[in-house]
Amino acid sequence: MGLIGLGAMGRHHARVIREVEGMELVAVADAQGDKHGVARELEVLPDVAALIGEGIDAAMVAVPTYLHEQVALELAGAGVHAMIEKPIAATVAEGEAVAAAFADAGLVGCVGYVERCNPALLEMRHRIEAGELGDVYQITTSRQGPFPARIADVGVVKDLATHDVDLTSWIAQSPYAMVSAQVTHRSGREHEDMMVASGRLANGIIVNHIVNWLSPLKVRETVATGEKGSFVANTLSGDLTFVANGDVRSDWDRVTVFRGVSEGDSIRYAIAKREPLRVEQENFRDRLWGRESESVSMSEGVHALRVTQALLQSAETQTLQFLGRSAYEREQRKGQLS
Q: Which residues does the UniProt record annotate as the domain GFO/IDH/MocA-like oxidoreductase (predicted)?
């Protein structure tokens, strides 16, 4: 394995790659040096060309978003498998070029959406697949907290909302059909720092996303509501709770006037909590080995980028944005995606 980008995320990838069975970190690169001291005995190479020159089989790409296309295309041209930190690229056109390059070369190409590896969301997905929620009606997400100094080249939509877009499609097993969004700029930066959005997936599930960098309270919550109740995933703690629709009648006059479901029993599941980043790298390794894997394909990465771009377009034009048939849907029909 080679690693390019030794910043806020790259330093964690360096540690995890060294820990994963079957992976050996043999080369690292970063034009800005190694400010976190993660290279250890390895020389810090200046660029992707030097990284390729070390004879690596696969690479982890953790450079800033605007460099993703350039680095990925060089890796694909050299026959190197790769996982790219989300989003796959800065624009849809760049993302499509990256995905096509890896597909044409017959290489494994993945995107690093680590939230899919969160134990609470994995458990939610599996239980929904097993029918424990019945028909799913709605998925809502809240991703809020203070501004991260590490981000300079994108706004909150491409940095954070892209997680919610990806995990929502994954949980629901459906692409987006339409979105509407509002953004605001309150921190004096070029890029947006707050967003609220709503939409509908192709399978009819309605969705809502609240994302910002300006909240003193850090929140990471995903709620799936269906005919049997709601799953509530706290991805900060990795906890999953199920709140069932109740069947207990009330004779309290103020309550009986409300029509609809009532709150039933709550269950907080005891689930194994493994580090999501480690699970992500193991998924990439398994994909390289030809095993069954839950790694995120590049076509899924392009779909998430297409949706985030539609969110920004909606906010700019104050219009509802419709998502056309995507590579995600075409591959899903071919059975190439889990």
A: 122-231
Per the structure, the complete domain to which residue 10 belongs is given by 2-114
Distance of alpha carbon 5 from alpha carbon 13, whole angstroms? 9
Alpha carbon separation from 335 to 131, 246, 275, 304, 338 (Å, rounded): 21, 38, 29, 19, 7
Residues 314 and 215 occupy one common structural domain: yes
For residue 179, give the nearest of 303, 62, 295, 287 by alpha carbon.
Answer: 303
State how many domains the chain has: 2
pLDDT digits 0-9 by tens, 185-206: 998 888 999 999 999 999 999 9
- Two tokens, residue 65: 């978003």
Q: Are residues 90 and 125 in the same domain?
A: no
Q: Which of 63, 93, 114 corresponds to the end of one domain?
A: 114
Say whether 322 sits in a helix, a strand or coil.
strand
Quick: pLDDT tens for 7-21: 999 999 999 999 999
**In this structure, is residue 338 part of a structural domain?**
no
Asked whether 208 and 141 are in contact (CB, 8 A), the reply is yes
| Residue 302 · residue 88 · CB < 8 Å | yes
